[in-house]
Amino acid sequence: MSNLYDIVIVGYGPAGITAAIYAARKRLSVLLIGELPGGEVRNSGDIENWPGDRQTDGNALADKMIEHLNDHKDMVKVLFGKVTLITQDTDTFTTTTESGDVYRSKTVIYTAGRHPRLLGVPGEEQYKNLGVTYCATCDAPLFSGKDVVVVGGGNTGAEAVIMLQKIAKKITLLQDQDHLIADPVLVANFEHDPSVTIITSTKTKKIEGEMTVKSLTYEDTTTEEEHTIAVEGVFVAIGAIPNTTPVKDLLELDRMGAIPADRYGVTSVPGFFAAGDVTDIRDAQIVVAAGHGCSAALSAGDYLSRHS
């Protein structure tokens, strides 16, 4: 059994790193546990909306964040690992990792993020960040004047089309069902737009290219015929899965499996804070996650000062 930390932070992305920096500045003892240094930001290609850096990329931004975090080694211990369970006993939290190690803390800041739901087709992994993207808000401006395809007819897919309407040259929207399931108010923005083609009853089969994406092949599930369309970008918009399995029995989750948390990172369990994409926060953006992580750390510090 380890020593009692002031805070255990789960997640090594922008929210977790920011929370750790702010907690360290308050001279709180922190254990940060994560699998990927920098988190899902490393799966981002070019980044043009991080304040202070007109243009960077996921790896460069992650490296800068980690370098900043390393300035606080005296207060923050970083552990590489996967958290499998978090429980609470009175006023102490116990965090267990996949290796069986156990860590105790007075508070928890949970920033484990979410992972995109994948198509699982040939070429998807090969062309990730080379034309295949999972975030229209992040990457739409990179496809100015290009032909693109959006896979997913729910609200995420519809919102991606709307973002791309004034940017891309031509947009093809593929939906696996026989109708779009997005809210009609969203579909109304593009259903009569000549630059948008909506194709239902489809199943994506493969993505091909050279240095970057050049085409996508889909099957018409009503005729079983395959069709290939020339595109330079593939926006996968079939949802994302919050990484909340370790805490599903500890606190309330919403119907999508995300953690309801207010703007201060406060959840349904006192002393347990959450930030970033693992929460029900509206906008999955790097800058939003970092700000939410800051708020969660300040909330944890306030909580500790009142419950010491």
Written description of the protein model:
The chain has 308 residues and is α/β, with parallel strands linked by helices. It folds into 2 domains: 4-115 and 240-306, FAD/NAD(P)-binding domain (3-Layer(bba) Sandwich); 118-236, 3-Layer(bba) Sandwich (FAD/NAD(P)-binding domain), CATH 3.50.50. It contains 6 helices and 19 strands. It has helices spanning 14-25, 58-69, 136-139, 155-164, 184-187, 286-306; strands spanning 4-10, 30-34, 46-47, 56-57, 76-80, 83-89, 92-97, 102-110, 114-116, 132-133, 147-151, 170-174, 196-199, 202-209, 213-220, 225-230, 233-236, 240-242, 272-274. The strands form 5 sheets. Strands 1, 2, 5, 6, 7, 8 and 19 form a 7-stranded mixed β-sheet that branches. The chain has a 5-stranded parallel β-sheet with strand order 10-17-11-12-13, with helices on one face. A hairpin with a 4-residue loop joins strand 7 and strand 8.
Residues in β-strands, percent: 25-35%
Whole-number average pLDDT? Answer: 94
Alpha-carbon distance between the termini?
21 Å
CATH class of the largest domain: Alpha Beta
CATH architecture of the largest domain: 3-Layer(bba) Sandwich
Say how many strands there are: 19
| Unreliable sequence segments | none
How many domains comprise the coordinates? 2
CATH superfamily of the largest domain: FAD/NAD(P)-binding domain
Summarize the helix and strand pattern as letters: EHEEEHEEEEEEHEHEHEEEEEEEH
